[in-house]
Amino acid sequence: MIEKQSSNSRSQYIIDDGNSGLFKVARKAFVEQDVWQQEQARIFDRCWLYLGHESEVASPNDFVTRAIAGRNLIFNRDASGEVNAFYNTCTHRGAFVCREAKGSSKLFQCFYHGWVYSSEGKLIDQPGKTAYCENFNHDGSSNLARVERLESYRGLYFINFDRNAVSLDTYLGEVREYIDLVMDQAETRMEVVGGTQAYAIDANWKLLCENSIDGYHAVTTHATYLDYLSNTAGSMTNSDMWGAARQFGGGHAAIEYSAPWGRPVARHVAAWGEEGKKDLDAIMARLSQKYGEERARRIGLLNRNILIFPNLVLNDIMAITLRTFYPLSPDRMHVNAWALGPQEETSAMRERRLFNFLEFLGPGGFATPDDVEALEMCQRGYKNLRAVAWNDISKGMTREEPGTSDELQMRAFWRHWNSLMTAQEAAE
Question: N or C, where is the chain less crowded by C-beta within 10 Å?
Answer without folding.
Answer: C
